[in-house]
Amino acid sequence: MSRKSKGKVYLRGLIELSNICRKDCLYCGIRCSNKKVTRYELSDEQVIELSRYAMDNGYGSVVLQAGERCDGNYIERISRLVTDIKKIRRGGSVNALPLGITLSLGEQTREVYKEWHICGADRYLLRIEASNPELYSKIHPCHTEPQQKMHSYKTRLEALYNLKSLGYITGSGVMIGLPYQKRGDLDRDLEFFTSFGVDMVGMGPYIPHKETPLGKLSFGANSSLPPDDGDFAGYSAEQRLLLSLEMIRRLRSLMPQINIAAATALEVLDPDGRSKAVLAGANVIMPNLTTVEMRRHYQLYEGKSGVMDDAESTGIKLESQMERVGAKIGWFEIGNPEKFL
Ligand code: SAH
Ligand code: SF4
Description:
The chain is an alpha/beta fold and 341 residues long. The protein contains 13 helices and ten strands.
């Protein structure tokens, strides 16, 4: 690894706040049309407890992720949670550093982003999903006008520019190995990351979910969508894994200073996916902190790990996994990209 961080890997404790979502993305297992999902929401107390766990176990920062919601009560709730998480200090010491907070809560208005940033959110992760607008429109519903409006590429892009101009450390990403996706689309994704000037990237393999229109294409079930005509039609899991690792490698050489996450979806394809991503150039890993009971309802894709390790064994496992690939964990470090140090 040639980048300046000398093989250091930072941890983000992932908290899957809720699987309630107003959107209907054609690839996602928790899309609002999937009536088989049991919807849940963690309580404020649970979120604070998980954040405290992250702090006590040296994670340095947390990611709050959820389906997309825009109602006033929800917006206020996030503001309150961000404010409360920022107050958590190691050992209760006022001089200790607060946790870094990354939000991954979808598209919101500029005002909402601003409010959450003022409350203490440092970073925001909003994937562009597919930087080619044509491909974007194929993987999002556009059958009715309200749907089209809610899943607009233009709005997505505007949201990303809003985040950046408000001063967030801004992250984006794409899915790799999507139906309809061509190799040129992936080249374009890399160009997008450089021209936008992302501070962090979370990109990973597309994993079909059989209760989604896009997933049905892969499972050979009847889908409302036309058959896949992309280069990656029927690409095996291994090919999607290799392609994802190649994308990380290419991005790292293009953008040596940014944070690149080893996507959790990689682990579905390979139990060693995380280490391989770090070898390819990723420097962020996101252990899941969500309780197992809730986690099984947060299936964006199928095959997600349901195993909950206790803190000590997670720490030891991570240390030895990372040691094997020559990386060191930045325990208790917030791990911002160099530009923000
Ligand atoms: N609702 C928020 C955050 C949760 S979804 C949002 O959409 O931004 C987080 C990410 O999960 C999405 O950006 C998408 O890229 C990824 N995802 C959803 N379904 C997936 C699938 N079937 N395979 C791989 N990644 C998926
Ligand atoms: Fe909702 Fe995000 Fe899934 Fe789209 S990707 S359906 S916004 S949770």
